[in-house]
Amino acid sequence: xxxxxxxxxxxxxxxxxxxxxxxxxxxxxxxxxxxxxxxxxxxxxxxxxxxxxxxxxxxxxxxxxxxxxxxxxxxxxxxxxxxxxxxxxxxxxxxxxxxxxxxxxxxxxxxxxxxxxxxxxxxxxxxxxxxxxxxxxxxxxxxxxxxxxxxxxxxxxxxxxxxxxxxxxxxxxxxxxxxxxxxxxxxxxxxxxxxxxxxxxxxxxxxxxxxxxxxxxxxxxxxxxxxxxxxxxxxxxxxxxxxxxxxxxxxxxxxxxxxxxxxxxxxxxxxxxxxxxxxxxxxxxxxxxxxxxxxxxxxxxxxxxxxxxxxxxxxxxxxxxxxxxxxxxxxxxxxxxxxxxxxx
Length: 344
Hints:
Shape: globular
CATH superfamily of the largest domain: Endonuclease/exonuclease/phosphatase
Largest sheet: 6 strands, mixed
Low-confidence stretches: 235-308
Distance between the termini: 76 Å
Helix content: 25-40%
Structural class: alpha+beta
Strand content: 15-25%
Mean pLDDT: 75
CATH topology of the largest domain: Deoxyribonuclease I, Chain A
Number of strands: 16
Order of helices and strands: EHHEEHEHEHEEEEEEHEEHEEEH
CATH class of the largest domain: Alpha Beta
Number of helices: 8
């Protein structure tokens, strides 16, 4: 199968390894709280095969424990620093020698301004923040700054992060910024909220449409989400258009609901390459006041398991939990008896 992209570079960012290299941040808190976490990020620098336009895609998982909110901030701060290095390095690479005349109005591959330090290269970040919208990590990605005395640092010391604050200039925006965020991306019997997000650089790249929330009727028939049918919090986060244009559609992390298919949320549209020519397959969207376009999209909804099978799954889970509880109680009882014997 012919790929639309050419992979230029990949990079794995290990936050604990990045922390070791930061001489000015070698504090007790950095050693004891950050370096012991093994969270990572993966970055891919891509180039459109036909036009030579560039794109950077990153995916990351941030530490989960709310009691370590300072660690979350440090990890996301290091991620932004590394991404700024990646896009700047990508911008310094020479442009592709030639491209299909159909693209960029026949002017050849796009040239990126080195003075922008890669900020004019489209960036898409899929990140599991394990944090709600309005948290420090979410605000930092959206606004580009966090003050040094932010309460989520919790009086811990992290060198320049807690002396000068966090800053980035990537110009990121949530794919769901027009209406807030998804109601949930993680669903369990005890938790139901959005903790996973898609951010994009809003200068060179704009959202065309966003799928709605996961259908509540579906969730009532499942043991949880993500699950075997939807193994990731991000369901088709990036989907190319059906035209021949090198264009991307950024959509939300969740599966489509019946409401979203009937009334999709549509935002402003833009191509990765502003001078790219329009195609007749991109149809005007009349549901918005903007002069925007909606790219046709067909969702592939997976039929949930029958209710009997789901009950069987839940029963297996409950029995497994019960076995563990019984085992722990037996071990505790035996240990108590042994302690009593020794005390005699």
